[in-house]
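tool_call: predict_structure(chain=1)
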Amino acid sequence: MTLVIGFGLGWTAVPTLIAAQSSVDWDQRGVVTGITIFARTAGSAIGVAVFGAIATSTIAAGAGEHDFDTIVSATFRVFTAVAVAAVLMTVAALSMPRKTA
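tool_result:
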């Protein structure tokens, strides 16, 4: 599953950066690149915090970190949340306006 997530993120990182760069003039590309990379980094940090909180709360509510079923349940909930985030990102990407030349 993590291979699929990484593969999908790898295919979207560069095209979204290029789309952002293409939407502004040359003198603004550095700013747009910096903002895009900052937003990606901030989003990653927030994602780690949210998915970590999901896992931690599931483990705390279960039988603890040494219980196999609890770990499986926490992992399932995290991957479900990642799948929801992926669907939302796909909808956001598809709703980006297309610029015709």
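agent: The radius of gyration is 18 Å. Proceeding to next step.
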